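Example for tutorial group B:
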């Protein structure tokens, strides 16, 4: 997976986080679910990024972002 896809996944999480907070501000239902979904997207992208960085470092190459 390329870095741009990981960043896109993280940005999707940020968008869901913003939507969830706007929904929460207006006291509409499903704000908690939107925030949980955003946390899952951001957590997944961070885990994928860490695995990719560790996998690249085991090859003896420098960190190439």
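The residue assignment follows.
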């Amino acid at each position: 997976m390329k870095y741009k896809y990981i960043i896109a996944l993280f940005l999707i999480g940020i968008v869901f986080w913003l939507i969830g907070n706007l929904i929460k501000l207006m006291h509409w239902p499903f704000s908690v679910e939107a925030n949980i979904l955003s946390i899952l997207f951001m957590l997944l992208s961070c885990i994928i990024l860490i695995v990719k960085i560790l996998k690249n470092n085991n090859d003896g190459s420098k960190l190439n972002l």
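The mean pLDDT is 88. Compare this with the pattern of hydrophobic and polar residues in the output above.
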